[in-house]
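Before our next group meeting I need something from you. Please put the record directly below this note.
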Amino acid sequence: MKAAVGQELTPSTWLRVTQDRIDAFARVTGDDQWIHVDVERAAREMPEGRTIAHGFLTLSLIPAMRREVWLLDSSVRGINYGLDRVRFPAPVLVGDRIRLRQTLISVESFGSGFKLKFQSTVDIEGADKPACVAEVLALVYEQ
């Protein structure tokens, strides 16, 4: 991993954000604000006429998309350690496709393992601004 510091890794494939996914996230988190779940009202009142995915939904999709960017060897276990500097520069509208790009920023010794820091960007297909920019921290250990 140390050899990859400073390199942008291969991006994930595009993932379509559906209303079903947004609704499921709203149910789980209790965040059922109308801009996310009321399709008819959004059609009338939102600038683009569509509902908006929760920023935290976009953030929560990083681990799933990350599996396409890099994988741990079967002899290694990984743990989410946290986030730094999370921002949501642009909204993800229902039907948009997103993907993850990551650059490994650092690898540090951490107890019996390593702490990895990634600059993570969630792009929206065709958009000028990303949906999410965050520094994602992970711990990795040999089993």
In short: The two ends are 17 Å apart (CA to CA). Strands lie at 15-16, 76-87, 97-110, 113-124, 132-142. The chain has one domain: 2-16+54-142.
